[in-house]
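Lab notebook page, bench 4
Experiment: in silico fold of construct C2
Operator: M.H.
Input chain length: 169 residues
Purpose: comparison with the prior construct
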Amino acid sequence: MLSNTKKPEPLAAQAAVEQKTASKAEKPVEVSKAAEPKAEKSAASAKTEKAAAAAKAKAEKAAAVAAAKAEKAAAAAKAKAEKAAAAAKAKAEKTTARKRTVGARKTAAPEVKLYVQYQGKQISQEEAVEAVKAAWTGETIKTLELYVKPEDGAVYYVINGSETGKVTF
């Protein structure tokens, strides 16, 4: 009988261990159930935070796109203004160049040398002017008109539109 009595003890001990294990297993399940709402809350919180972060990222991206568009528009406007300014400058230079060319033609007189030859005699324009200046004793010469008459061997002059005279050559 001893053997019969000893066997139930281990079964009883085993049943007690199983009860303890079962109660322990139930407690973690209960703890898990208690933790589930917290986990659900934290999951919902995480979803909310994730959605907020996504919204913030979208807003930042939209702001960056808007800033890029504004910079691009500003750069295009600046380039257009610079192009217009360059065109205006080129037009002004072209106009100025034309005026300078026209003005240069009017002011630049060609160098003229005049010689009169007759029966072996010759007189140049410079010699005639010097001869008239040497003979003239009146007021300052503003205008001088010379008339060369080779058959007389003389240069006739009109000074300042009214004074007349003659120089031989």
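Observations: The chain has three helices and five strands. The longest helix spans residues 8-107.
Next step: discuss at group meeting.
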